[in-house]
Amino acid sequence: xxxxxxxxxxxxxxxxxxxxxxxxxxxxxxxxxxxxxxxxxxxxxxxxxxxxxxxxxxxxxxxxxxxxxxxxxxxxxxxxxxxxxxxxxxxxxxxxxxxxxxxxxxxxxxxxxxxxxxxxxxxxxxxxxxxxxxxxxxxxxxxxxxxxxxxxxxxxxxxxxxxxxx
Length: 166
Fold this sequence. Notes:
This protein is an alpha+beta fold.
């Protein structure tokens, strides 16, 4: 092969190799971008479900005897049908005590985190603190709660499926 043909062959070979390297690099960059994106989506999902668990924990622990029935209905609507039934039965037993005692309990989240997450279920642990006032106390009484909240995805909505005091 003459020197001129060899030089052209080498130039084409270098060009082909360079194009292959560029294509491979672009492919790896796109694939890495997908992994970062899916990781971000996973982080967003975890944060959203953790925030929801915190909201539910506040709902389950905050009591106001003046709006007790409305709050109970609102909370039950954010629960699976089975858990809503158990929840209503439990609060029905305590409702007369709350009304008679004029109980107002407000809570806020101290810490919350997921202990498990799957496609249609999650478990969160939430720590709350709050204050309770009632007809029987002359000053607010501090309260602390630790709870585990089970969540189940039904359709597009995450609902409380169980609550356990820790």
